[in-house]
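Example 3.
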Amino acid sequence: MLSEILKGCRKRRRENQKELYEMFYAYGMSITLRYADSRNEAVDILNDAFMKVFQNIRKYNEHQPFKPWLRQIIVNTAINHFHKQKKVKAWETLDETGAEMAAAETIISGISYDEIVEMVQQLTPAYRTVFNLYVIEGFKHEEIAEMLGISVGTSKSNLSKAKRNLRTLLENKLT
Amino acid sequence: MHNENQHTDPLERLFHKKAGEFDIPFREEDWQKLEKQLDIVDLRMAYRRKIRTLVAAAVLIICFLGYFTLENHNRLNQLASQLEAEPTEETEGNLREDLVLPETEPGEGAATSLNNSVEPVEEQQVVAEESPVESEPDEFFHAETEAQKNDLTESLFAGRQEIETLPMAGMHSEMIPLLTEESIQAVLNYKPRFDSVSGELAAAYEGETGTYASDDFFTTEPATLAASRFAVGMAISPDMSTVGRISGFENPGYKFGVSAEYRLSRNLSLKAGVLASRVRYSAQGMQYNPPNYWNTGVIPDETSAVCLLLDIPVGIKYNVIHFQGSRLFATAGLSSYIMLNEEYRFSYNNSSGQYGLEQDVSVRNGSRHLFNNAGFSVGYELDIHPNWSLRAEPFINIPLSGVGWGEVDLYSIGSFVSLNFRL
């Protein structure tokens, strides 16, 4: 089924392109929502990623799974978007507030995906991106540093601050 | 990547787990946004296909024009060669008896008559000194004096009998039916080019070797043109290049090099060349297509490029209009590029995010792009010497595919000035 859709996408058939988009829409949005400030921004990132997918579909190796290839393109597009839309001011603001969190960590298993996304979106772009790349995508700090053009130390620091802020947000949610 | 199972932090485990529990419904309006972008890309691709089709049509039209010109030229050459064809060695059995001329002394004035009803011709008419069987077959063309030639010309129009009195000894009988008034008139009016008839024929017509009358459309070539079909030239031109559209040119570069030309016919030639080209242009972010995952997927907002490349054009040249010692021509062809050196500088609108991003790239991979550009030009050629000519040739190059490290669609315009030498 997927191979037929991809074959049609290579021939630039619109109906096959829409089928592919629908098939991986939810998966793609689950990634871009974590990198974007809002849903509209997440849609823009997703659409840019799919444009790259359709333009480079001939370079896709059919013997490899499609989902990881798609994921790589979406993450790279999100990083590119991060570089373009970086809000230094917001970063400084959050850094200045520097809310301290309680030492004890609380696990909240009942929290939904949408709430998770909402909290992640409240982070500054720099913290959010490092957090997503490390915790969700599974990259190492060295790889994150290279991708974002920062030092390894900055990557670790941003992750630490992101987790601190998320704990704060979680606590605020519970109270 | 690190081992995802090693999230010892409960917070990390929570977010990692929840990230996979998404349930996001599809929204049609999101697809419609993407569809608009796809429509733009499809329009761009359709435009490229149209350009390729136009290029192919232009090349085909010029080829057809050249083919018909060549055919026409060959027909005229055939006619001329039939008239100048030398007769083979005669034998008694091959000659018509009524064409065998009696021996006469020069200046006797006696008619060389094939039958007794012919009137005597003028004294200075060329007659065979030896037996017709042994006389030179092209005696007519070797007439030495103007008076002799004029008399011969007049006698050609005096009718068939007068024609038959000419010293046509040695010509085969099957040639005689061709010598009608109309065919001889056509031959006399036809002024063949130097490269299609012998020098003797030209001399017989004009009295000077290689000189041609210039009183009609077909005879405006200068005197003593070289007989070779080959020509070489050196050309130089400024180069204005841009990406993605025919506008927005910035700093000019240059092109210079050599070309070779082979003339298929009077109007049609094949051309090829090698040009060193220095190209300067700027491109916006999305006009570049660098290698996958270069610069961690970040596309610069603007890229400035200076590239040194070899431009290898091949094409056809068609002379559209001929003047006295000059001509207007048009060319169409395809260019291949070999990238020798590419230097790119990048700029990003958000300066704070530039840390760690590529600022410049230098590439020397000698990448080759075969027939990636279509080239068109129109020009004016002036003969400054029988073997030398000057040309002014404005041109435009249109991309058929991306070139270079960034796979950009490169448009170029300029104007060649070239000096050409006919070998």
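Chain B touches chain A through 46 residues (CB under 8 Å). Chain B is about 25% helix and 30% strand.
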